[in-house]
Structures
1.
Amino acid sequence: MTKSTTSAWREARRQSARESIVDAAWDLAREEGLLMWSLRDLATRAGITTPTVYAYFDSKHAIYDAMFGQAATDFAEYMARPYDVEGSREQLFVYVRRFFDFCTSDVERYQLLFQRTIPGFTPTPEAYAPSVRALRTLGQVLAENGISEEGHLDLATALIGGLVSQQISNDPGGVRWMRLVDEAMEMYLAHCQTSEAGHSPTSRSGRTTGARG
Amino acid sequence: MTKSTTSAWREARRQSARESIVDAAWDLAREEGLLMWSLRDLATRAGITTPTVYAYFDSKHAIYDAMFGQAATDFAEYMARPYDVEGSREQLFVYVRRFFDFCTSDVERYQLLFQRTIPGFTPTPEAYAPSVRALRTLGQVLAENGISEEGHLDLATALIGGLVSQQISNDPGGVRWMRLVDEAMEMYLAHCQTSEAGHSPTSRSGRTTGARG
DNA sequence: GTCTATAGCTGGATAGAC
DNA sequence: GTCTATCCAGCTATAGAC
């Protein structure tokens, strides 16, 4: 028992040290870009030396993976917060606004999570899982708005992703595309709900597979 | 006279050598990614040595600039080809399809031209100019469809860019988002033309034919 | 202009003492 | 686990002979 608590304590210390290294990595990534920091920089920033970093991570890619996992968890939590609105339509709007805000509020996090910007790096399935789960919610919210065709889901990701991308690339920190989010979703809903009218009533029973024509 | 022709000849030879270096750079960029090739690789591929590269370009960034300039010129020419369709509406569709095809047919070219993926690199104004000119055409084509609000232009760039980006990231070489392009533009036109009906002096009908004159 | 040779630096990762 | 010291590979860029 004493043994197990000691071991748990050590494990907690270890996790804490890992997290402080990952935090330092995020600081550097935000200052100099996701790719432009070195393990030397990182060690200095974290107040340790390079070999010590290797006591906690096997490689630089392992650090990216930890960063990805942290970002994915943040994303899942951010999107899963309670929706204090009534109606599936308003819920969709809140979902999209949230997604937009999450992405634009931290460009490097967005790049690591949703762009494929680090050469040779692919997140492990464990790190990737929360992100997949959170993205699946979009399909559910759309389904509750009577939208279940695969093509319309793809259209939504393109539209929302396009708004985010333009905002980040061409007006970082501004609102030029942010203020178009609601209008874009109204446009989208008007189109898809007209197009899919009659195929599925409102919620619950929507068909989600095979609809392709 | 002999002197001037000789000098022009030499200049042509020099330009030719520059182009073959840039071509080799594109080959490598497409094989290993925009960032993952070195001047050594490039020299080997071009059949010369590293110092010889420096006889034609001052730095690696100068090579990126030449690549950017070439891509921008290709883009301008690709988009400026004659539009063998009648009506401003069809013209817009052709424009967008062309843009989509140009971007998705060469991912590295797209990344260099429209993403900001090379650290520390900004294209010179001369290299950038053709791209700006070609992009301005979108505004004109939209205006001929009765769409002139700034926000609606931004909405178009977000929508089109989003489709391109999703296609490249999530279904490279496929058609999953390509086949949504026309539908997306119909959705867009239905929204914007309704929204701007009456505001715009150029067009007030939803479906214009031959407004270009 | 083209080469050989190399400077000068930075990167990720390791050995081994403590 | 943490350090000092270092390895080794890669990079851009340059010097200087021809």
2.
Amino acid sequence: MELLLHPFPSLLHPKPHHFPPQFPSKLRHGRLQEPVMASPQAPPLTLPLSLQETRSAAHRHDRSSSIQEAGARPPGPPARVEPRFVAETKLITVHSCAGRLGDARKVFDGMRHRDLLAWSAMIGAYAIRGMYGEVVALAVSMVEEGVLPDRFLITRILQACAYADDLELGRMLHSVAVKRGFMGRVRDVPVGNSVLVMYAKCGDLVCARKVFEKMACRDLGTWNSMIFGYCQSADWEEARRLLDAMRQEGTEPGVVTWNTLISSYARSGDLDVAMELLGQMEESGVAPDVVTWTSLVSGLVHMDRSDEALRCFIRMRLAGVEPNGMSIASAISACACLKLLNQGRELHSHAIKVGSVNNVLSGNSLVDMYAKCGEIVSAQRIFSEIPEKDIFSWNSMIAGYAQAGYCGKAYELFCKMENYDVRRNVITWNTMISGYIRNGDDERAFELFQMMESYGVKRDTATWNILIAGSVHNGYYDRAFRIFRQMQSLLMRPDYITILSIIPAFANLIASWKVREIHACVFHHNLELDGKIANALINAYSKSGDLASACAVFDMHPSRNIISWNCIILAHLLHGSPNEALILFSQMKQEGVLPDHTTLVAVIKAYGLMGKISEGSQTFLNMANDYNITPELDHYVAMVDLLGRSGRLKEAYELIDAMPLIPNSTVWEAFLSAAVRHGNVRLAHLAARELSAIDPGDHRVQRLASSLQDLTGKSVDVPKETAPNKGRKSDEVEGCSVEIRNNVYVFSNGDIVGLEDTVAELKSMMIKMGHSMLDIGVGSLDVEEEKEEIVGVHCEKLAIAFGISNSSHFKKIRIIKTARMCNHCHSFAKLVSKKYERHILIKDPKCLHKFEDGKCSCEDYW
DNA sequence: TTAGGGTTAG
């Protein structure tokens, strides 16, 4: 009784770590200065008869008892309630039911005296609309005014605390519930459950579990709530233990239990377990409902498995479960990912049929779907018809315009949205920045990037990723790397998208140290070396000339898939190790991984490099039967290369002639290379003409023709360039780059300004190698001639000379070239590698040449 | 009167 008279004993002696918690000394900073007690002058609280009649008998009973328990007024004869208050409370309910929340609030605010019923009506009006912030704020005011919630209202407020993440108020209400005796009896199970859920949702699982253990009675909801708590904290093991425990105690899991588990596994990306649980659910005789299916559909969409998501949606329909707005929205989102306009339209009609089309959720998915499918007008129409647009609506429409290249329209919405009381969030800014950078307006993108924090929006990892990916996309690789370093210096943690965005920019010979730095960053930030990152690293290490590191990443790969195998097989091909590539192919098959299109191209190429014509041809001929893969252009290219290398030009030509696909320039290029290598001028002419017909003015044709001329001494008649150069960017400088001690030096053909020392070095090298240079045919280059006459020298010779004189002996010389190597330079590099005992790596657009001890890994065929 | 599902950017 003492407790009832002094409902806040802890105010005098706060003990913060007590369980159940005591009332805090202050409910909120500054909100509650004094201990709150029921005021002795509080107006009478007897339930008005008129409203009582509308309530159930049980409710009536509970209400009167709760008022007595609260000790809100001294015992005595029931006091009269002024009829005006009763009428006002009724009016709040009427307004609220009619959707006039503002009017309801006006009545409430104007009341001179507010009893528990008035508070319940007003709080209920907010709670039913999910306006949990308002519920929490009102609840605090209510307690401050000395009114305490009954067992019904307390559950509503606890629910609001759970959603609004208000652990402080939640603890206080727990204390109220304990002290007022709402937690002990069978009929109080819902209150206990609400307390439990409040702790679980606010992340205090220890308290949730204590409530759970103390509950004298538990129902299905109790178990569900506790399981939910563990699922939310990703403690699947404990959640599954509870599932077993509830069954042992005689409570069979219901549809909500299964849905809780399935949805949390689906959200976490563990779709296989979610599917397994779906099976168990069906086996136990519980039919999956629309929530179960929606969890699976959306989980699959998030895991980039949209095709499966749509199959799942169909399964739901076949099971006779009618989709609602949420499930349709998820399915539309799957269509958006797959750009399935027709299926998206079908779902649109279905949304109209079930009346969810004006629902903001379906509307948002439709805007996104139409925009991604390129139907920007339809997207705009849906957007304009959404009655209460939220942040998702605006962001989706802005993204739609930006992706379609209409940055002006996107920016118009970006500026306009705040006039509609929708605050721009980090995604809005990111979308706009991404739109500008993707459309080549880097300046505006960086401007917005600089501005956003002054508008109170904090940049996140995605913001940085957009700048990095955009810089890579626009060819500003060094800028991308600077941004990457800057984000780390500002303690912004990179994620797997950062890594995947930046790696491809440095998958080349002259940036090997950058690949190592990126790899170190993966370790430093403890980023999971998941499939995609590992595959990207294998690829990057391989292309940066470091096959050993590529193999190391592959060996430690946690989840090798066909892409990982393709990466490592292609790495060995690139490094001139076709035999190892084929060994890996066998291992892959032994591990039960089926080859795909790319694997078979690599295998045919490997046989080609080894001169194993028959094995390669067999692979090509049997691929449809053995692996159900129809030969495509790439496979024909590999076959032409295989036959061409061995000089079987006639067979190669017959293959091209008989192929069911139209040969593209790559097929003819492979054939031309073979004809040039084997000195067959007639066939080289033929190939050059075909190539010119496909791609007039292709600079590669001109180069191959000149190679043929060099080789045979005969002129090759190909049409001169009539169209602009294709295959390279207009601003790209023809030349090569060499990496020395993490610095990159760029040379262009014949440009010797400021390179006097290098030219001198080159001269001395040539003298050292003496007659050898003349043996390979130096053409216009004569070491005894003056500098001016060296202008015709190819840049890789300069780069090699520069590398020899500027790097230590044990370092490899790494060079990349924009044009293919000529015979002279190739022979020169071989000689240098022997004479100077150096490893030289040169990557041209076609081949990685590894020169060592006078030999090249390409075996002189490229 | 309690418990489960959704849509946007890199």
3.
Amino acid sequence: MKYRKIPNETVRRLPVYLRGLAQLSQQGVFSVSSSKLADFVNINAWQIRKDFSYFGDFGTRGVGYSIERLSKQIKKILRLDTLHKAAVIGAGNLGSAVLAYPGFRTYGFDIAAAFDSDPEKIGKNINNIVVEDVSRLNALRKRQVDIAIIAVPEKAAQQVTDSLVRAGIKGILNFSPKRISVPKKVKVITIDIASDLARLPYYIPSG
Amino acid sequence: MKYRKIPNETVRRLPVYLRGLAQLSQQGVFSVSSSKLADFVNINAWQIRKDFSYFGDFGTRGVGYSIERLSKQIKKILRLDTLHKAAVIGAGNLGSAVLAYPGFRTYGFDIAAAFDSDPEKIGKNINNIVVEDVSRLNALRKRQVDIAIIAVPEKAAQQVTDSLVRAGIKGILNFSPKRISVPKKVKVITIDIASDLARLPYYIPSG
DNA sequence: CTATGTGAATTTATTCACAGCA
DNA sequence: TGCTGTGAATAAATTCACATAG
């Protein structure tokens, strides 16, 4: 293997592989070929092999990949081998859903705190987490939280973002459709639910 | 303009333009140039012009684009000019959040029904919609619902999908991380929240 | 003989640079 | 002059095909 820039699309697929491997592992399987994994996660076998090849030789020719070894490698690449603490900002419907969402455990995240500005919500216990006042966001640095999930109304998004940046947050999962500005050292990944829904009709044959 | 295949990525951006235009319109603006819109939605001006050029000549040289005209065109392309009724399957945390999500109105969707299998939830009123028994999914065809949003636990996803397909659903927004199989006439767009969170640490400098 | 790993070919998407119209 | 629309150039990602290792 020699060095090549890793495509963004490859990085996007790695978590999918990781989850597939976790499921296979739970089924008691120890080894898998690229074509088996392909069926399982619905991505072509050659794509899988190409993706892995950017990082090194993970498999054994004629045999396949060791699920444990491969999972460890992917976790390492994605930096999921160290614990990441995350905070949820906004304890409304979406924020509560995120707090209760079981899917994050798979990747080893610790959802460690929740914040809101509404006095009605502050102090409430959601899924074993007590909602704190959003004015205390600056304490996140000392609590070693480096990831934030923004689930606040659109108009509050930028202000919250600014506070998060000041609190030393390094990565943001943003559910607000509003573009948010951050210094370039901070990585933002946006999930724009309404836009995704909005392109569905395009693919639906009319009539 | 001459015919060219429309890139998927272009389709992905159209809803973003549409929302930007709606916001500008609300600010009382009637006309916008590609570079103004570029600032607003955070996409390059040349990208915007190229995207529009796939569909025809929307602008006026030297002037820019009429916001009303352009919005209408994009809605037509995305088939958002006809009403689409959508149903939410799963009235848990995520489903409830979706039911209450204000962002769909922007694109003219009518969230018309909600379903769950849990007797505790059936009959509950969430955001003015009464949760129905999931066994009644087959009535969706006659109610002219053509889009479904799946917010059920992973293990129920495929079964629910099969029912939806039988009920004549044409498009699915899928929040379940499990791959779901559908006949190819049905379009699925998946939002995989956990995977998106999982690639954040990759972009965060270690240490 | 099987399944990986990877150059090369192809396809897709982005970026540029500027001709052409208002 | 200002801003669109678009070929051509570049870059990125996917797909192929096969040499190579176990």
